[in-house]
Each structure stands twice: as structure tokens, then as C-alpha cells.
Amino acid sequence: MIVRALQTTIQSRLFKGKALLVFGPRQCGKSTLIETMLADKDHVYMNGDEADVRETLTDTTSTKLKALVGNKKIVFIDEAQRIPNIGLTLKLFTDQIKDVQVIATGSSAFELSSQVNEPLTGRKYEYMLYPLSFAEMVNHHGLLTEKRLIEQRLIYGYYPEIVTKQGEEKELLQLLAESYLYKDLLILDQIRKPLLLEKLLKALALQVGSEVNNQELAQTIGTDGKTVDRYIDLLEKTFVVFRLPALNRNVRNEIKKGKKVYFYDCGIRNAVINNFKPLNSRTDVGGLWENFVIAERMKYLRCQGNDTKQYFWRTTQQQEIDLIEEVGEEMMAFEIKWNPKERVHFSQTFTENYAKAKTYTISPSNIEEFLMNSGTEKE
């Protein structure tokens, strides 16, 4: 079994008087993680996708909850975002049934967070679980094996089912993309045009590694800029994509409000455009590698509880740096290259205006330094 990096952290928070919330995309392993933790513990399991569970846990009372739990000490509520007023129900557990540990998972940050933030202020620990990571797979079967599989990861990604069922990747990814991309989104009232959402996803997938302009996207898919921004926001809240903002410190010619959009998983990105060709016959390898590295770095930092701020940097003269990270007063600049032999030049405009920034090049040859350690050795 592949051990998830968050398991030890979450286990250490059991019975601390707070609800445990685990967010993440559908099928990323949330249920498996919690069930593995609770395998030797007597507990109650409830799934928010089931109608009778929703009815039981909506607008309930502490008396009813005590009867439901009985003498069990742990309650696991899966897909909790489907239960109306779940925040108040979780509050009853933490306030009125103090000897019971409640754990809830949710695949939509938009729905679950909006329901629990106010009722559970000061009463919860929150964790994000993503698809499997480079670091987790290295720990599972070793660095050499995982580095040999990098091309496989760029094409098919890191969803647990995809990683563990070799030979079925393409079919499973297409099924996963069709169900998971739209299931949570289409439940929301804000998504009234599924075809528009599909067009937007394809447009974003084809622009991976490039700066995204809402107005240009709107013209491409036949809508307006506000709708594009709203849909990207919802895609982010349901863990399909994430945004990387432009660094802006008022340096001359620096872009002011730019952004890039990356997919949490390269396999999902490829499924959206139905492209599973090997890397040697693709024209998008640079953008795909950039998406992989930035997504994996983001997973790594968040799993460590690191508050590093991330940006890209670009000027109106097209000078660009793929990734900038800031931690306190420290700044690091990264160029991400698929070819380890490619010569890298950091813009003089950047190095003069950010003289203290350390510069690095990330390629398949040294990727482990970037995705498994808190820092990297300077070139």
C-alpha cells in the first residue's frame, strides 16, 4: 500500500477536541486514507452521497447524534459537502459530544468551506489531500524507479487508481475526467452551461505554461470575461486547476496583474484534450513539464505546512521566469527545463532588481532536490 504523507500528521490530531476536515478532489484517496487510519478502530461510517445520511445529519440535535453514535468513539463522514448545514452538525459533535472524534471529508472546498468556516471557528483542523505525489511514490518504491516513470507521470498523472492499474490508464482517466470534473461543478447553481465549461477547460489545457487572459479566453469560447473568471474560480475551488499570479514589485515594465493556470494533475489535463501521445511525438512537452513541476512543488510545500508564496515573473518585453518563491525576506527564482542540457539565462532586468534572489534550474536530472527537500543547492 502507498503510504500518504499526511497520515501521520492527521493521526497525531486525533482526540484533540477538534473536528478533522480533509479536503481534496474526488478519487484522490481521501476515503482510503481515513479508512486506513481507522482500520483497527471501532467507528461509525456515513456517506453524504446517500439520501438517508443527508436526512439524518441535516438540522439534527446532539441527542439524536448520541443515539446514532452509541458507544463508538470515532465518526467518519465522507463527502460531507453534500449534507445541508453540516457545519452546525459538526459543531454539535465538538461542543456537545466531546469524547467522540468526528472526521469529515469533502471534494468541494466551495461547498464544504462555506458551511463549516463560521460554525467551526477554532474547532477544526483542516488538511488538503491531493493526488499522489512524486515524494510519496519515491518513498513507496525508490527514487530510481520513480525517475524512470517521469514520462508516464507527465502523460497519465498521479491519481491513485491510475498509478495502481497499469495498462488501463487511458480508459480510467477518461472516465475519471468525465465524472470528477463535472460532478461537483454541475451541482452548483453558478454552472448553467456545461458546454461552456468544457470549452474553457480545453482552452486552459492548451494554454498550460502560458499567461492567461480572461478577455482572450472569452472570445475563444464565446462568453464574457466575468464568466471566465467565475468559472476558473469554481474550477479552482473544486481542485481541477490552480492559479499562479504574476510577481509585481513596481519594477519598470513588469506585468501588473497577470496569471497562469495549471492543472492539479497532468493526466486530467491530457484527458481534457484527449492527448496521450508519448512525449517524443508531442509539441507541448515544455508546458507539460512546467505544469508537472509546479503542481508537484505546490503539493510538497502544502504537505509540509510551508507558507511559501509562489509567482511567475514576466515583463512587457517577454522576459520571463517560470517560478518565483518568497519565504519572508528570501526569494528564489526557478527556470523549469525538460532538457537538462538546455542553456538557461536569467533576465538581467530581474537579477538587477532582485539582486538577493537565488537562481536555480530544474530539470529531470535534479527534480528530487526540488520536490523532496525544503531547499535546493545553488548552481
Description:
This protein is α/β, with parallel strands linked by helices. It folds into 2 domains: 6-128, P-loop containing nucleotide triphosphate hydrolases (Rossmann fold, 3-Layer(aba) Sandwich), CATH 3.40.50.300; 134-191 and 230-372, no CATH class. Helix content is 44%, strand content 16%. It has 18 helices and 11 strands. The chain has helices spanning 6-11, 30-37, 51-57, 62-69, 86-96, 109-116, 134-141, 143-148, 150-156, 160-164, 169-187, 194-206, 214-221, 225-237, 266-272, 285-303, 348-353, 367-372; strands at residues 19-23, 44-47, 74-78, 101-106, 124-128, 241-245, 259-263, 309-314, 320-327, 330-336, 358-362. The strands form 3 sheets. It has a 5-stranded parallel sheet with strand order 2-3-4-1-5, with helices on both faces. Strand 10, helix 17 and strand 11 (358-362) form a beta-alpha-beta unit. Helix 11 packs across helix 15 (266-272) and helix 13 crosses helix 14. It is globular.
Provide the fold topology.
Layout: H1 6-11, E1 19-23, H2 30-37, E2 44-47, H3 51-57, H4 62-69, E3 74-78, H5 86-96, E4 101-106, H6 109-116, E5 124-128, H7 134-141, H8 143-148, H9 150-156, H10 160-164, H11 169-187, H12 194-206, H13 214-221, H14 225-237, E6 241-245, E7 259-263, H15 266-272, H16 285-303, E8 309-314, E9 320-327, E10 330-336, H17 348-353, E11 358-362, H18 367-372
Parallel strand pairs: 1-4, 1-5, 2-3, 3-4, 10-11
Antiparallel strand pairs: 6-7, 8-9, 9-10
Helix pairs in contact: 9-15, 11-15, 13-14
